[in-house]
Amino acid sequence: MSGPLPRLSPLLEAVLGVGTDLELRTTLQRIVDSAAELTGARCAALGTRDPGQDGLAEIRTAAPVSPSPGLLSVPIHVDGEAFGDLHLADKRYGAPFTAEDEQLLHVLAAQAGIAIGNARLYEAARQRERWIEGAAAVTTALLAGEVAADALTTVAERARILADACAGVILQPTPAGGMEIVTASTYDDPVGIVGTTIEPGSAVLEQLLGGEPVFVEDSATDPRMTTHVRHRFGPSMMLPLQAEGRLIGTLALPRRRGERPYTPAERLLAVQFASQAALALVLADARHSRARLAVYEDRDRIARDLHDLVIQRLFATGMMLESTRRRCPDDDVHATLGRAVDELQWTVQEVRTAIFALQQPPADAPTGLRARVLKETAGAAALLGFKPSAHFTGPVEHRVPDRVAGQLLTALRRALATASRRPDVTRVEVSVDATATLPDDRDAVRLTVYDDGRADSEDGTTTVWQSPL
């Protein structure tokens, strides 16, 4: 490989071109395309030695490369380690690859190693930033005063989005010594997932109850996985939600069968997210307990005041009226005083009932459709990089039944997921109209999701879902 480099101008353009983008997949595609253009190959491919490290398998241009005559391959090294191999085949006009082609390819491979290293650093920084922002968003949401069930759902939803998983699942220990799925966030209908249990004796259960993370390459075939829903999923992470020595549960993030495995970086970031989320759950629980205690104390004070002041005075007044009634000979006055005594006794019973109610634990406020829609849009912000806007028309809390609300939320998740995968999305608008009507004049609820990303239409994409009420 001695002597001046031939075809210097195209080589310099190729070398400069492979380093112009910091997105890893785009960088790899530029490398493959530049290699094919420099050497005149019709087929080019870049295969990685360890697909699990970057979540990539093969990048290619034109047809797949086959080990036929005329194959030229060079290795690519990143930071001194083998990253993969650049393969070329089927040179134009049937000509063989030359030593000059190989020399060009080696120079390009050296520059590609630098570009891939930079892209890796950039991708790692972006991933870390997204997970940190997601953990901060979860902490903020939990400390805002959400009830326990909603807090777990928030953790599951945000983790699902950040991990690009098909589901976010929370499992908690059962009295029998197993674990049960208590909440699930999925793009699709989660029917059949919540309530699924891992029975005592499962090989994976000891690790989960011990607070150890478990990583599974294929949930459907791994013998440690015993639930009836395992066939739905492929790669999965099962992460302990543990803080201050307390195991709250396990966060499971499965992907669909056939999807790429989790990289070591993704696993590390997810473990850190789970630790942060667990601490936020503990703090939120403590804060919620303090708030409930303050409510109890205030209610006890009100109950004591009612009992000590109101009840005693009402009772004394009733005794006075009863004594007056016995001494009064007039029948009309006697009847009137009797009715007054009865009213006072009834009032005493009502006040005592109110005192008893004040001494009971306050019921958790139900979460309506409006709040659930806002939670979905807030969760999508971690993936989109901005929060979608949401608009509501009509009494959505009262007109939309739970069954239809669940279907609407499933449609919303799908629409937001589709929007997040579209290029150049800068704006997403969500609208829920509870005053809509169908063509047959039936009352309906309509969901409209608009995004301005590139698609077949230059004006963005609008997704509409509706259902009769």
Keywords:
Beta-Lactamase; Sensor_HK_TwoCompSys; 14 strands; disordered N terminus; 469 residues; alpha+beta; 11 helices; protein dimerization activity; 4-stranded antiparallel beta sheet; phosphorelay sensor kinase activity; single chain; 6-stranded antiparallel beta sheet; transferase
The global form is elongated
Largest sheet: 6 strands, antiparallel
Strand content: 15-25%
Order of helices and strands: HHEHEEEHHEEEHEEEHHHEHHEEE
The N- to C-terminal Cα distance equals 75 Å
**Per CATH, what is the topology of the largest domain?**
Beta-Lactamase
**Number of distinct helices:** 11
- Counting DSSP E segments of at least 2 residues, the number of strands comes to 14
Category by helix and strand content: alpha+beta
Protein name: Two-component system sensor kinase
Organism: Streptomyces lincolnensis
Pfam families: GAF (PF01590), HisKA_3 (PF07730)
GO molecular function: phosphorelay sensor kinase activity; protein dimerization activity
Q: How would you portray this structure in words?
A:
α4 (about 100-145) runs parallel beside α7 (about 265-325). By secondary structure, this protein is an alpha+beta fold. The termini are far apart. The longest helix has about 60 residues, at about 265-325. The chain has four domains: about 10-125, Beta-Lactamase, CATH 3.30.450; about 145-280, 2-Layer Sandwich (Beta-Lactamase); about 290-360; about 370-469, Heat Shock Protein 90. The model is unreliable at about 1-5 (pLDDT under 50). A hairpin with a 2-residue loop joins β3 (about 70-80) and β4. The radius of gyration is 33 Å and the shape is elongated. It has helices at about 10-15, 25-40, 50-55, 100-145, 150-165, 205-210, 265-325, 330-360, 370-385, 395-400, 400-420; strands at about 40-50, 60, 70-80, 80-90, 165-175, 180-185, 195-200, 215, 235-245, 245-255, 390-395, 430-435, 445-450, 460-469. The strands form three sheets. The protein has a six-stranded antiparallel β-sheet. It has a four-stranded antiparallel β-sheet with strand order 2-1-4-3, covered by helices on one side. Strands 11-12-13-14 form a four-stranded mixed β-sheet, with helices on one face. The protein contains eleven helices and 14 strands.
